[in-house]
Known about the structure:
Layout: E1 11-14, H1 30-35, H2 37-43, E2 47-50, E3 54-55, E4 67-71, H3 78-90, E5 94-99, H4 109-114, E6 128-129, E7 149-152, E8 157-160, H5 175-191, E9 195-198, H6 234-244, E10 252-256, H7 262-269, E11 278-280, H8 302-316, E12 323-324, H9 334-337, H10 345-357, E13 362-366, H11 387-398, H12 404-414, H13 451-456, H14 461-474, H15 476-480, E14 482-486, E15 493-500, E16 503-510, E17 516-519, E18 528-534, E19 546-549, E20 554-559
Parallel strand pairs: 1-2, 1-13, 2-5, 5-9, 9-10, 10-11, 12-13
Antiparallel strand pairs: 3-4, 6-8, 7-8, 14-15, 15-16, 16-20, 17-19, 18-20
Amino acid sequence: MQKAWWKESVVYQIYPRSFNDSNGDGIGDINGIIEKLDYLKNLGIDVIWLSPVYQSPNDDNGYDISDYQQIMSDFGTMEDWERLLDEVHNRGMKLIMDLVVNHSSDEHHWFIESRKSKDNPYRDYYIWRPGKDGKEPNNWNSTFSGSAWEYDEQTDEYFLHIFSKKQPDLNWENPKLREEIYTMMKWWLDKGIDGFRMDVINFISKVPGLPDAPNPHGEKYVSGGEFFVNGPRIHEFLQEMHQEVIANYDVMTVGEMPGVDVDEAKKYTNLDRHELQMVFQFEHMDLDSAPGGKWNLKPLDLRDLKKSITKWQTGLHGVGWNSLYMNNHDQPRVVSRFGDDKNYRVESAKMLGTFLHMLQGTPYIYQGEEIGMTNVRFESIDQYKDIETLNMFKEKVIEGNEDPDKVMESIYVKGRDNARTPFQWDSTENAGFTTGEPWIKVNPNYREINAEAAVNDPNSIYHYYRALIQLRKKHEIIVYGDYQLLHPESQEDFSYLRTLNDEKLLVITNFTGQKIEWTLPENIQFHVKEKLIGNYSNQEMLEGRKISLRPYEAIVFLGE
């Protein structure tokens, strides 16, 4: 297997608005990040992924960009950003930026020009269509509720926006647009960044003609995903991007790809095809959603998680490369979602970290995950900020007369603001995030759950994550070993075996709040050499083929 620095790295995602505020305006900023770089270096981080800091009217928290080559004033200046890059590099870490090029802001100068007239040179930078029978050009819905089309009086046409109406989709069929994007990417890479995380990059190729989506239930708007997810020219566009830009730099690329499957991901991440190195897939993030989407809740069946993780671990092995994550700025907190944040917060957070970091792939830690930050329950919808959450509440409760308590419950479980409450630095007011009024309320549990307490407690989740990261740097088997699932039908444990040459790694995790008895399957030969890590003190060794596990216990053995 080809070795590479990005396969051996651990990535930390910073959501800048919520990370650390240096000037008291209640909004995290670039200088605030610089203040905390030693904290990340001490954790053992290799690469920082910075969520968007570009100029933006902030309709979707910076994922609506009005100038790709300016810094949003909320976050600081280009000089601040350049200092951040230098300080990251001075500590031996790398910085990757968020590339958001499926859509721009409607306040980008390309779109301002585009909407002026049908013959404007920028018209075809976006996707414009005349209406059909006095309605939208097709029946696609927006990810953020309502139609994916917005009427513009000036030219009597509609523009496509798969996300918010302030996020018009860019027209990748236009070679001039693609050239502009590649020029912008080179500009950032020449500044010295170490790669890109690419936002919904598998949406950029739309099926010609933009047909109506099947609508068996006669709904007003339905998902048009089959006509733009992994579209007809997507591989061509990514290969062109690689040839024009990426091939000239030693950088890391990861594409966010809702709706990608293993077969498609093999194409995206096979290095011989010259597209990307990794994808973010969402299969495991949808396992606790009932039919009808993320807001329809159902409990996780551990067998589904095993099936999904195993499919990706074995499917990409030797062909592509996995990105490993359970948390990001769009997902609820993993300890609240798949652990127990009330009775076994520390144990279950460590167990989930063990389960993830011992897999093959590049692990991504989302800010606050390493101290076990939890979901939040704000009292009122008025305290939420996320556009997806607010639009859904309006559609279901205000327009659809659904039970507000039931809708709020799904927000508590799945809302994106769970990940966006300010980072909890210490037990002082506003968790040490700001001296001002935070842009979104702090989770009230910050007095118990905060980085200062975690750093000072040798048994904390933070120090456990440090140990997980150090093990990955020390043992090649954790990075490159192959993967074999054990106990596929168990609804209690998620255990697997990694193998590299003559070495084996046995990973055992209890996903329940009960004690369980664990047995090594008869067909597996494993001789313990040492215990590498575990989340309880005085842990048992594997005696013969059996071991007793306490609630949310995790243990990793090195052997042969």
